[in-house]
Amino acid sequence: MFKTIYLKELKDQLKSPAFYIFAGLLAFGTFIFLSGTRPGVTFLYISFGKEWHNAPIVIARLLASYTLVGVLFTMIMAGGAVARDFSAGIHDFFFTTPLNKAQYLGGRFLGALTANFLIFGGVLLGMALAGMKLPPGYYGPFSLRSFILPLLVIVLPNLILTGSVFFSLASLTRKMINTYVAGVVFFLAYVLSSIAFMKVNNDLLKILADPFGISGLSTLTKYWTVAEMNANPMPLDPRLLLNRFLWLALAGAVLYFTWRKFKFVSVLENKKRAGQPVEAGHGPGEVQTLETLTPSIPDYSPACRWAQFLDLAGREFKRIAFHPAFIILTFMAMGEIFTNFLANVNEANNEVYPFTSFFLQYTSHIWIYMIPITILFGGLIVWRERDNRSHEFHDTMPVPHWVSFSSKLSALVSIQFCYVLMAMLIGIIVQAGIIGFTDIEPMLYLKGLFGIEFMKFAFMAVLVIFIQNLSPNKYVGFFISTAWFLGDILLYEVVKSASPLLRYGHIPKYIYSNLNGYGHYGPMILWYSFYWLLLALLLVLASSLLWRHGNEGSLRHRFRQAGQKIRPLQTVSLVSLTLLFLTTGGYIYYNRHILNKYRSPDGQKQVQAVYEQKFGKYRNDPQPGTRDVKLKIELFPEQRKVLLKGNYLMVNQTQSVIPEIYLNLSDRLVTKINRLEFDHPAQLVLGPEEFGFRIFRLQKPLKPGDSIRLDFDLEAEAPGFTDNNPKDEIAANGSCIIFSGAGGNTKYFPGIGFNKELLLTDRYDRSKYGLPEKSPLPTLEECDPAVPYSYNRLVTFRAEISTSGDQTVVSNGDLVRQWQDKGRNHFHYKSDIPIHDEFIFASGRYQAARDTHAGVAIEIYYDSRHPYNVQRMIKGVKSGLDLANSAFSPYPYQVQRIVEIPDYMEEGGARSQPTVFIWRESAGFVSNLDKPDRADRVFGIAAHELGHQWWAYIVCPVYAEGVNLPTENICQYVWTMCQEKEYGVKMSRDFRKQEMEIYLRGRKRDTKGERPLMRSLDGQSYLAYQKGGLILYALQDYIGEDKVNQALENIVKRFGFRSDSFATSRDLVNEFRAVTPDSLQYLIEDLFQTITIYENKAVSAESRKTGDGRYAVTLTVESNKFRADSIGNQTGIPINDYICLGVLGEKGEELYLRKHKITASPATFQITVDGKPAKAGIDPYLILIDRDREDNMVKVNNI
Amino acid sequence: MNLSISNLSKKYSNGVAALNGVSLEVPTGMFGLLGPNGAGKTTLMRTIATLQEPDSGEISFGEINVLKDKMAVKKVLGYLPQNFDFYPKESAGSLLDHFTLLKGIRDKKARKLKVEELLKRVNLWDQRKQKLGTFSGGMKQRFGIALVLLGDPQLIIVDEPTAGLDPAERVRFHNLLSEIGQDKVVILSTHIVDDVSDLCPNLAIIDQGSIALQAKTMEAIRSLEGKVWEKEIPKPEIPQYQARYRLLSSRLFAGKTFIRVHHPNNPGDGFAPRPATLEDVYFQNLKR
User: Fold this and answer.
1) Cα–Cα distance for residue pair A1025/A1020, rounded to 1 Å
2) What is the pLDDT, as a whole number, of residue A290?
3) Is B51 in CB contact (< 8 Å) with chain A?
4) How many domains does chain A divide into?
5) Positive or negative torsion for Cα A247, A251, A256, A257
6) Where are the beta strands (DSSP E) in chain B?
C-alpha cells in the first residue's frame, strides 16, 4: 500500500508543470552563474575568483544556496502533497481504504521528497551546459563525486528538514495557505538571523546554527586558497556533520509529531465549518404575499460615477491586499528592505549614518518585487469578473467602461502606493526608531520613493493592464507580461543594449549626492518621467477604449467598436498625446545624443581601444615635461560652465630631440577652443582625432633642455541632461575638476603625450576589442628607475579661480588672496615650492573647520550636514604629521586641506594631491563611529592620505612591480602606527585582525594571482592595503619602530623631490635589510620577497604553582611555516623563527610575552609567571600571517 | 413598451449560424422562448442584453435602439445569465449593495433599504452576511433574481433559470418570476416546456437559429386539440411507427413505451385520443 501511495505521489509530482519549471530554473541559474567569465559576479552570495567554476566547494555552496531559495519549491511540493487531497476533496477516498496513517503520510512525504530531490538534476544539466560554453581553464575535470557528496550531505537533509515542516503544516491544518505563511516566516527568520550571526565570532555556533549548512560551508572554507578549492572535496568536518545530524533530528521529530497528530477523519472537529450553507426559504410551493418594491431613483451623475468608481476600486483593493500571495510578497519585500537597510548602514567596520539617500540607494531594487505583484494582480483584477463568472451581471450594469477600467487600474496603483508607503515607513522606523537618526528628509522620500519608484510601478501597472485587456485569456496575458519583463531585464540589465528611450517606464541611471541632491540629473529624471507618463496615458486611453465587454472578446470587434464609439475629445487627446510623446522623445534624444554626444560605457571602451590601436605606437616617444602651470579658471556652477585659461611651461627633460608634440583635448568635455597654441611655430599635422589626439610638428625641434610654452583658452559647458554624464565634475554644488598631470588624464585641460590612462586594463575588454594583453608592470629587474609610475612632474603652480558668491574654491598650495568681485568669489592659490602637477579645483557651499598643528594649518571643507567626523579627520592629520615629521622629513608645506566631494566619482574613497585631499562624501563624512570599540577608520584614512604627501609625491615610485610598497604599504603603516598611538594597543589588535581577514579573503579572489609584497601590482588592493599594513607592522614589531622609520627616512633623503630617479620596492627592502639585525634577516625574505604563511597553534598548557608563589607553565605549541604560490599551493618549509609566546591572566592581562626561537614543531616551553595563568599560546596578537587564528591560544590547565 | 426584434442574424467565426433572420414581437408580460439546446436562445438573449453584437438586424425596446444605445438599455435591463457565479468571499448583502450602487442608487440609506427589500423578497435576508461561496445553486439563483430586480427594470431577460434546480426550488422560482412579470417585458428562455406552460401567456419556439413559431400559449395548445393520439407499443417498433406517423414523442411509463403522434383524425391502429399539451406543440414545431 505504501508503495502505491509513494508511486502515485511521485507520478503526480512528475506530471505537474511545477516540477519542470523548478528543475528548469535550477538548470538556468546554474548555467548563467557558472558560464559567466567575468570574475567577481555575485550570485546567491557566492562569487568566485580564479578557482574552477566547477570546483567541488563552488558546487557545494551553490547547491546549499539553492536549497534556501528552493524553500519556495519545497513549500509547493511538500505542502501540496497532502493539501492537494483535501482541496480536491478526495481525502475521504483514501481514508476509507485499508491504509494506515504511516503508509499514507509516509508515501506522500517520500514521494514529494523524491520529486523535490530530483529537481536538483537540473543543476547537473546547467553544469554540463556551462562546461560546454566555457573556454578551457575555467573548468576542471568533471567529477560526479563533487556533485553527489553535497547532494547527500547538504541537499537531502535540507529538503527533509524544510519538507517536513511544510508537510506537517499542510497535513495538520489541511490548508495550503498555512504553508505559504510558514514559508515566508521561515525565509524571513533565516535572513534576519543570518544578519545577526554575521557579528558572531564563534565558528562552532555559526556552523551549527545554520539549518541549511550554508554558513557551515563558508566558515569552514573561508581561507581556502584557489589550489585548495580546486582540489579539495567539500569539507566533511565533524562540526558540519553534527549540524546535519541535529537538524535531521529536528525533522524526524516534526514528522513523528505529524504522524501522531494526523487524524484519518473527513472533517476536523471543534471547528465550525464556515462553508456549510444554511438552506433558507419556505416549503415547496408556498406562495408569499409580497409588497410591491419601493421604486428606486437611479442617478447617473458624475457624483454617482465617482461613488461607483470608489466602490469598485475599494473592493479590488481589499481583494489584493488580503490575497495571500500579496501578503507573502510584501512581507518578503519589506523584510528584505528592512534588513538590507539596517545591515548596510551597520555593515561591520563600515557603519554609516542612515541618510535617506542611502535608504533609496539600498532599496532601489524593490521594483523586482513589484514585477510579480503587478503581473499577478494586474491579471487577476482584469479577469476578476470573468473568473468568477459574474461578468454578465457586471457588463449589463449601466456603468461606463472607463469607470470599470479606471477602478481596476486605480486599485492596482493604490496597492503599489501602499507598498511604497510601507517602504517609506520602514525607512523612517530604521532611521529614527532603531538608530535614532533625526535628519529624515521627508521631501527626499517623497521625491525618491513617490516621484521615482512609485511612478515606475504605476507605469508597470498601466502596461500590465493594457496587455491583459488585449489578451485572449489570463494565461496568455501572464505569459506576455512575464516575457516582457524578463526580456526587459535581459536586454537592459544583462545585455545592456538599446536606448533608454525604448525602455518603457525606465529612467536611466543617475547619481544622487547629499551635497548636490539630484542635481543635474533632476531634469533628466523629470523629462523621462514626463515622457513615459505620456505613453502611459496613451495606453490608459487605449485600454479604456478597447475595454473588454460582454461576450465579444475578439480584437477586431473591439477595435471596430472603439472606432465607432470614440468621441471627438478622445480623438483629440489620442493625437495630441502621441504628438507630445514623440516630441518629448525627440527632445530627450536631442539632449542625450546631440547636446551631450552620449557614449555608453562600452562605446567609451571601444573609442579607447581605437585610440590605443591608432596612437599606441607613440606611447614611448619622448615628450616635454611641465615645469610651471598657470591657470585662470572661471567656474559658473549654476550654469554648469567653466572657462579655462592658462599656460604650461614645458621643458625637454629627456636626452633626445623632440620633433613633434602630441596633445590630447577631449572634445566631449571641452566645448569650445578659443586658443591652443605653442610659443614656437608649430604645424598641426594630425587630428583632432579620438580624445582630441593631435600631433603638432615643431618647426624647430625641441632640443634637450629647451623649453616651450603652451597657451590655451577653453570653454567647457554641460548643457541639457544626459545619463552617464561625462561632466559630473561640474555640479551646482560640489564641483571638482581634477588636473591629474599634464602627462596624464587631464580631461578638461590639454594633455601632453599619448594618454596611458586610456589604455583598457581589463583582460576581457582587451580581448573583446582585439588588443594584445596589457603587459604588466615591468619587473624590478627590467624597470628603468628614471621612469616614474605617475605622469606627474614637479611644477610651480599659480591659479586664479572664481566661482559663485556663495561657494568656496579649494585647491593646492597657499591661498594667497581671496576677494569678492561683482558678486563672485575669487581665490588665488599658488605654490612656489615645486609640487607635483596634480591639482584639484573644488567648489561648493562648504563649511570650514580649521586647526593648526606643528606650524601646519589644517583645513577641512565639508557640507554642513556632514559635520560628524570632521574632528576625527583633523586628529588623523595631526597624528600623521607627528609621525611623519619625526620619521620621514618635516612637512614642507604650510597647509593640509581636506575637501568633501559628491559621490559622482564612484570608486575610491579619498584621493591625495599635494597639500590637499579630496574625500568622497559617503566614504568617511557619513561614517558612524559612535561605537567606542570600533576602529576609527576615518582617523586612519586621514593619516594614510597624509602619508601620501611623502609616499607618492615627495618620494615617487618607479613604474615597476612592487609599486605599492613605497606608496600604499607605507601609508597603511602610517595608519596602523598612528592608530596604535592614539587609540591604544587593543584597537590596533582588533584592527589588524580585521585586516588579516580581508587579506586572506582577498587573496583567493584575485584573478591576477597573489604576489610577494615586493612584486605586487596596481589593483591588488588586498596587498596594497591590508597585507602592506600587517607586514610593516610585523617588521617594526620585530626590529623596532625607530629602525623602520630610519630606513624610511633614508629613502626620503635619497629620493625626496627628485625628478630624475625614483624609488622601487627593492630600494625600500634594501633599506629595511640594512637596519635589520643578522638574527632576523630571514624576515626580509619572509615578509617582502615571498608569500609566507604560518599555521601557529597552541596544543596544550599546564601550570604548576611553584614554591615561591609563582606559576610554572608548560606550553606546547605547533608552528608550521609555508610558502605559497600565486594560487595558494603551499609548500612547507622548516621553521627556525622567532615567534611570540604569551601567557595571559584571567582578565586577559599579559603575564608573559616574549619572542622565542622555535626550531621544531611541536615544541614545548617552560615559562614561569607571577600571576595565575588562564590562557597561553603562540603569537597571541597575530603579528604573523596565520590562516587559522582561533587556535593560537589554549586554556591553561592548572594542576 | 414592446420589444421588437427584426431580421437578427449572427454567424460565429467557426461558421455556425446562431441566429438566422430572427424576428420577434415581445409584448409586456412573461414571454417564453422555448428551444432545444444549441438553438440560439442564449445568443439571442445576450444580444438583447447588449453582451453580443449581431451581424445584421435591429432590436428596439420602446424608443430605445438596443444595438446603438447600450447604456439606455442597461438602465432598464434586468438580466439573469445562463451560467454565473459570484466572488466567493463576498457576503450577499455586501455584493448586492455594490450592484445597487452600480445600478445608479447612490444614497446609502436608499441602498440599504433596497438591499433589505430585495433580499427579503428572494428569501435570503437571513443569509445576508453569509459568503456567496457557501451558497447552494438555488440560493445563487435567487440571489441572481435579486440582481435582476435591481433598479426597476422594464426589460427582464432570464436565460435557462431553472436548469439544475430541484423541484421545490423551481416552484419557488416560478413564484418569484410570476410576481415580477406583470407590467414588464419578461423573456424566459428555457428548454423546459413546463416553465413556459406554467408562466408564459406568449411564447416563441426557436430552432436552429430561426423562429419556428410565435403564438399565444393557449391558442397554440388549442390548435392541436383533438389531433394528439397515444399508443403503447413494443420499443423495437418505434421506427415503423415513425415511418408511418408524425411522431411527436415517445416516453416510458412504468417500463412500457408510449408514443404520441400528430394526426388530424383518429388514426385507428390502437391509438387513443389525448388532450394536447404545450409539449406537443413544441415537438410539433421542431424540425426533424
Assistant:
1) 9
2) 54
3) yes
4) 4
5) positive
6) 3-11, 17-26, 29-34, 56-61, 64-65, 77-80, 155-159, 185-190, 202-207, 210-216, 228-233, 246-253, 256-262, 272-273
**Residues A1066 and A1122 both lie in one domain:** no
Whether A384 and B87 lie within 8 Å, measured CB to CB: yes
Determine whether the interchain pair B151/A304 forms a contact, defined as Cβ–Cβ distance below 8 Å. no
What's the Rg (C-alpha) of chain A?
A: 35
Handedness of CA B53, B57, B63, B69 (dihedral sign): positive
With a CB cutoff of 8 Å and minimum separation 6, the contacts of A256 are none
Q: Do A392 and B51 touch (CB under 8 A)?
A: yes
CATH 3.40.50.300 applies to domain B3-221:
yes
Per-residue pLDDT of A640-659, as tens digits, reads 999 999 999 999 988 899 99
CB A82 within 8 A of CB A108: yes
Last residue of a domain, one of A595, A612, A628: A595
Query: Does the beta carbon of A299 lie under 8 angstroms from any beta carbon of chain B?
Result: yes
Q: What domain range is A351 assigned to?
A: 316-327+342-595
Report yes or no on A418 lying in a domain.
yes
A61 touches A1018 (CB < 8 A):
no
| Residues A1056 and A889 sit within 8 Å (Cβ to Cβ) | yes
Compute the distance between CA of residue A766 and CA of residue A778 in angstroms, rounded to an integer: 19
CATH value at residue A1133: 2.60.40.150
Residue A446 and residue A321 share a domain: yes
Q: Do A392 and B87 touch (CB under 8 A)?
A: no
Of the candidates A53, A131, A39, A50, the one whose C-alpha atom is nearest the C-alpha of residue A764 is A39
Q: Is the peptide bond before A135 cis (omega within 30 degrees of 0)?
A: no
pLDDT tens for the 288 residues of chain B, in order: 789 999 999 998 888 888 999 999 999 989 999 998 888 999 999 999 999 989 999 999 999 999 989 999 999 999 999 889 998 889 999 999 999 999 999 889 999 999 999 998 888 999 999 999 888 888 898 899 899 988 889 999 999 888 777 888 888 888 888 877 678 899 999 888 988 988 899 999 999 999 999 999 999 999 998 899 999 988 888 888 888 888 888 888 888 899 999 888 888 888 999 999 999 999 988 865
- Cα distance between residue A1140 and residue A1115, in whole Å: 12
Contact B224/B262 with Cβ under 8 angstroms? yes
> Does one domain contain both A1071 and A1147?
no
A278 CB near a chain B CB, below 8 Å?
yes
- Report CA A24 to chain centroid distance, whole Å: 28
| Cross-strand bridge partners of residue A629 | A648, A797
Cβ contact A294–B114 (<8 Å): yes
Instruction: Please state the separation of Cα A499 from the chain's center in Å.
Output: 25
Do both A1076 and A1126 map to the same domain? no
- What ranges do the domains of chain B cover? 3-221, 225-285
Nearest Cα of chain A lies from the Cα of B158 at a distance, in angstroms, of 12
Bridge-based pairing state of the strands B272-273 and A916-920: unpaired
CA distance to partner chain B, nearest, from residue A274 (Å): 8
Q: What is the ipTM of this complex?
A: 0.93
A1099 and A1077 within one domain:
no
The span from the CA of A79 to the CA of B250, in Å, is 55
CA A453, CA A363: separation in Å to the nearest integer?
Answer: 10
Based on the fold, state whether residues A1151 and A1178 are members of the same structural domain: yes
Q: Establish if A657 belongs to a structural domain.
A: no
Task: Record the cell numbers describing residue A351, joined without a space.
Answer: 557603519
* CB spacing of A549 vs B51 below 8 angstroms: yes
The HSE-up count of residue A341 (CA atoms within 13 Å, CB side) is: 30
- The reply to whether A531 and A462 lie within a common domain is yes
Which of B50, B97, B103 to mutate: most A Cβ within 10 Å? B103
